Amino acid sequence: MRTTVDLRTKFPHLRQDFTASLVVFLVAVPLCVGVAVASGVPAELGLITGIVGGIVTGLMRGSSLQVSGPAAGLTVLVFEAVRQFGLPALGVIVLAAGLLQLVMGALKLGRWFRAISVSVVEGMLAGIGLVLIAGQLYTAAGLTAPASGLGKLAGLPGAVADVAGNPTALASIALGAGTIAVLVLWKRMPKRVQAVPGPLAAVGLASVVTLVLGLPVATVEVQGLLGAIQPPGLDSFGELANLSLLGTVLAFALIASAESLFSAAAVDRLHDGPRTEYNKELVAQGAGNTVCGLLGALPMTAVIVRSSANVAAGAKTKASRVLHGVWLLLFAALLPGTLALIPLPALAGLLVHAGWKLIPLRSIVTLWREHRGEALILVVTAVAIVAVNMFEGVLIGLALSVAKTAWEASHLKLEVVDKGAGPVQVHLSGNATFLRLPKILDDLEALPRDRPIELDLSGLHHLDHACRTALENWADRHSAGPEPVKVTEPTALTGAPG
């Protein structure tokens, strides 16, 4: 009796956290397996990443209710890395990315990820979603997907023709479509039924249907937990001299960090508990990825699906996410054979549904109405990821975002007041930078040379060197005529042109 009282005193939220951990565990199992299979690695590696995300990252400080594990957002990047460098190199890539995250967290760079344009992040997720959906449609039909994003999209019409007369492929597609239907309709089921997480219900039903009907579809290949772990060998570290591999490491670190910290901000809006400490969360993510790399597992990020399920289930402390990692460990160690019952088309349907949710259709419509420049950045980033690759697509989006910000920062208004008699008044307001210089000079050169000019710069907030020099030269040339130029200096700046 006294022991029970002591536990309640020491862990006042143990019941809520215990219940939430079970819910998150049931959500995590099919997603961990699905992400691993879609990434082209053994299914057990997804579970290992989930275990590390729960126990290692879960014990660390940062975001108390956020849950980490393998994420659909990195599936495309991992698949490309494994295809290009091989599975043995994956551990080295993830390890190096984790160490880079640790360094960034130690340098307190976590908060700077919040400065990344939301349009770039949403464009990144949309591009990932499109490639993920296209690739998993082939898996749902039992076909091999082309390597590139454009190839996946371009090959879909041919894939449809191949499937049309193939009963086995049609059965596989029907199973994947049924999985998606269950996921979509699950939220409309009674609350008691919804106590079972939708992903688990969808994959579980698909597994039962496959077993009962004896459908000729592919299922998950099982190696066993210890058989799947492949720590990177010393020869694998030699790959770090490859510039292409280093680019992949940087992409892993930056994209995983951005996704985790944006997820943390979203999770903070779901509860009233302690707020996220971004630098500590970045360190926690780095520690988790370092361990995942040493085990040769998938990279991890914070996952909004599991995190929101954790909050909705009533979790109060980080104990819930740690316990969910313990349940994953017990499942992987004691019941690995059950994975062989899961049909691949069901996992493909699960990931098609996840990919669809990565595409921010509502945000695109809203941005187009209110901020068309941001909508353009989102769309271009997504298209670039599909057409080129993940890393370069994100860089293109960031470059566009910086260019747009620079253009807006150089906003300038030039107003000419000519009353027909007396001096012509020219008012400049805003930010005068070299980006607006051609327009400024065109307007000034068009002014009459036989009239006095009053150039009022008092409304300028910023006047860069290029503009100041150009205005000085123009004023000198104009003052050489019959009427000089009178200049009113910016109130916050010194030094007059002319």
From TrEMBL:
<keyword id="KW-0472">Membrane</keyword>
<feature type="transmembrane region" description="Helical">
    <location>
        <begin position="163"/>
        <end position="186"/>
    </location>
</feature>
<feature type="transmembrane region" description="Helical">
    <location>
        <begin position="85"/>
        <end position="107"/>
    </location>
</feature>
<feature type="transmembrane region" description="Helical">
    <location>
        <begin position="376"/>
        <end position="403"/>
    </location>
</feature>
<feature type="domain" description="SLC26A/SulP transporter">
    <location>
        <begin position="14"/>
        <end position="381"/>
    </location>
</feature>
<feature type="transmembrane region" description="Helical">
    <location>
        <begin position="240"/>
        <end position="262"/>
    </location>
</feature>
<feature type="transmembrane region" description="Helical">
    <location>
        <begin position="20"/>
        <end position="38"/>
    </location>
</feature>
<protein>
    <submittedName>
        <fullName>Sulfate transporter</fullName>
    </submittedName>
</protein>
<dbReference type="GO" id="GO:0016020">
    <property type="term" value="C:membrane"/>
</dbReference>
<feature type="transmembrane region" description="Helical">
    <location>
        <begin position="119"/>
        <end position="143"/>
    </location>
</feature>
<dbReference type="Pfam" id="PF00916">
    <property type="entry name" value="Sulfate_transp"/>
</dbReference>
<dbReference type="InterPro" id="IPR001902">
    <property type="entry name" value="SLC26A/SulP_fam"/>
</dbReference>
<dbReference type="GO" id="GO:0055085">
    <property type="term" value="P:transmembrane transport"/>
</dbReference>
<dbReference type="InterPro" id="IPR011547">
    <property type="entry name" value="SLC26A/SulP_dom"/>
</dbReference>
<keyword id="KW-0812">Transmembrane</keyword>
<feature type="transmembrane region" description="Helical">
    <location>
        <begin position="326"/>
        <end position="356"/>
    </location>
</feature>
<feature type="region of interest" description="Disordered">
    <location>
        <begin position="479"/>
        <end position="498"/>
    </location>
</feature>
<keyword id="KW-1133">Transmembrane helix</keyword>
<feature type="transmembrane region" description="Helical">
    <location>
        <begin position="198"/>
        <end position="220"/>
    </location>
</feature>
